[in-house]
Write a structure and sequence with these properties.
This protein is of the alpha/beta class. The protein is built from eight helices and seven strands, in the order E-H-E-H-E-H-E-H-E-H-E-H-H-E-H. The chain has helices spanning 26-36, 54-60, 74-87, 107-115, 136-150, 169-174, 184-194, 215-233; strands at 16-22, 42-48, 64-68, 92-95, 121-125, 165-168, 199-203. Helix 1 packs parallel to helix 2 (54-60).
């Protein structure tokens, strides 16, 4: 009997990858990576042109690091998260911030609906808990953006700007993103909904350092609102 060609081993376990987009988060990234490693199979840090040793600290903590030569913006960092998940054969991608705002110990909350087959994209919502501690100006801005997303839509969410999310493989492999700034969070939801992916939210807690309303924050919020309107006029909703 002729020997049969060997077959590649089948993957029997769901591979979960956490990707962390970062810009100058050296004081926090070691702890974030260490905690995230307790809940996922691999941690990847996307260093978006930091100049403070973020990449070195992440590597020392055991993360795989992808580095942008310059600061390209949050949108491009998220695209790099998607690409890293595909390159590293992830079945589920979790994205969380590297500045200690998100609690990596809440990763299992986001994974549960995906592992049970109840959702394709899970949002960690800051508004599904009684302990909403974010600054009032930020809460107002997010509420406006979320209202615009929900307006006239069958799929409604409570936190359209949360950066703490989990994606099934078919979502991060199929979505093509173009936004370069924070508006990528809205673009992702718009295109996921348009593609028929199931979106679910789970409650999370978020830590905020003390901050004040600034011109930069106002411009940031207006930029996202304008991007939301642009996406609506393109009939993507």
């Amino acid at each position: 009997m002729m020997p049969q060609p060997s077959q590649p081993p089948r993957k029997t376990q769901t591979k979960v990858v956490a990707a962390i987009p970062c810009f100058n988060t050296q004081p926090f990234i070691t702890g974030v990576v260490a905690k995230a490693k307790e809940h996922v199979d691999q941690v990847i840090v996307i260093d978006d042109g930091s100049g403070d040793g973020t990449a070195e600290a992440a590597r020392a903590a055991g993360a795989l690091v992808t580095t942008h030569d310059t600061n390209r913006g949050y949108g491009k960092a998220i695209r790099s998260c998607f690409e890293a998940a595909k390159t590293n054969d992830a079945d589920i991608l979790v994205i969380l911030d590297g500045d200690n705002q998100h609690n990596p110990d809440e990763i299992p909350l986001l994974l549960k609906p995906l592992l049970k087959g109840e959702a394709d994209l899970v949002i960690g919502s800051r508004f599904l808990t009684d302990e909403v501690t974010m600054p009032r100006y930020r809460k107002f801005g997010i509420s406006v953006i979320t209202l615009l997303f929900n307006l006239g839509s069958e799929t409604k969410v409570s936190d359209a700007q949360s950066g703490f999310r989990a994606y099934d493989k078919k979502v991060f492999q199929s979505l093509s993103l173009a936004e370069t700034g924070m508006s990528v969070s809205i673009e992702t939801l718009v295109k996921a909904k348009r593609s028929g992916f199931r979106i679910k939210e789970v409650p999370i807690h978020c830590h905020y350092p003390s901050s004040r309303l600034s011109i930069k924050a106002i411009k940031h919020g207006l930029g996202i609102i304008f991007a939301m309107l642009r996406l609506r006029f393109k009939n993507l909703l």
